[in-house]
Specification:
Blueprint (H helix, E strand, L loop, with lengths): L1 H7 L2 E10 L9 H11 L10 H8 L7 E14 L2 E12 L3 H12 L8 E4 L6 H11 L21 E2 H6 L9 H7 L14 H6 L4 H22 L10 E3 L2
Parallel strand pairs: 1-4, 3-6, 4-5
Antiparallel strand pairs: 1-2, 2-3
Helix pairs in contact: 7-9
Length: about 240
């Protein structure tokens, strides 16, 4: 257990929830509408929906056309009277993306930047670049832990549970929910899934529901990281979900 305590000391587990930057295609300015139509021409579209409808369905995953509405952050911790690891998760959420990103930056800069490890599932291809790009769009200076340019591979401390599962097999993609099922970890998808987030945000205006879902994704992420590193998972009663 001391080994886990040492390894996990500066790890933050994160998950993003993103939606289309505008509620609908026609709210984009003319220039961005043209850019989306170019993008849409290269997106797989088996149902042959219009670029208008495709925007609502798919824009959230592209940092040029989406925005962050919620960031889940979790960390392992210990109390002095108990050697059992505990886990605390919270969310930073709202309608103002810049405010969310500034609060997240303030949080992670409390950690030594040359020691902080950010962990996400598919983080190297989605969460980390999406965060960086949206910070730049919002005029926010990147924290050192997210600055990748000029760094040697071993200087980038990011961890990715998908990357860990692949073991170098980059043909393989496994969703977080699949690996949770494989390792017997309770799913976060009992209420909504990532495909529902744009609808729940814009049509239902239920940000609290998205926050709850995001927290559970972070819990699953941390439990998966533990299993991939051959540690026991956290007992349910030792998981704290902060407001």
């Amino acid at each position: 257990m001391q080994e886990l305590r040492r390894v996990a000391k500066n790890i933050l587990f994160i998950d993003l929830e993103t939606v289309s930057g505008k509620e609908s295609f026609d709210l984009l300015d003319e220039r961005m509408q043209e850019q989306w139509q170019r993008k849409a021409a290269n997106i797989r579209n088996d149902e042959h929906v219009s670029a208008f409808d495709l925007f609502y369905r798919r824009a959230a995953i592209y940092s040029e056309f989406g925005k962050i509405i919620c960031i889940g952050v979790g960390a392992l911790y210990w109390v002095s009277s108990d050697e059992q690891p505990r886990f605390k998760v919270k969310t930073i959420a709202g309608d103002d993306e810049k405010a969310i990103l500034l609060e997240f930056k303030e949080l992670i800069e409390k950690y030594p930047q040359n020691q902080l490890v950010l962990c996400a599932h598919n983080g190297k291809e989605f969460d980390f670049p999406f965060l960086c790009r949206r910070m730049l769009v919002n005029g926010i200076t990147l924290p050192d832990s997210l600055k990748l340019s000029g760094k040697k591979p071993w200087e980038i401390l990011h961890q990715d549970t998908l990357d860990m599962w692949r073991f170098g097999d980059y043909k393989s993609f496994a969703q977080l929910d699949l690996l949770a099922a494989l390792f017997g970890i309770p799913s976060s998808k009992s209420d909504i899934s990532g495909e529902d987030v744009t609808r729940v945000y814009y049509a239902e205006k239920d940000l609290d529901r998205i926050r709850r879902y995001c927290k559970e994704d972070v819990v699953v992420l941390a439990q998966l990281w533990l299993r991939l590193n051959q540690y026991d998972t956290i007992k349910p009663e030792l998981i704290v979900r902060a407001e």
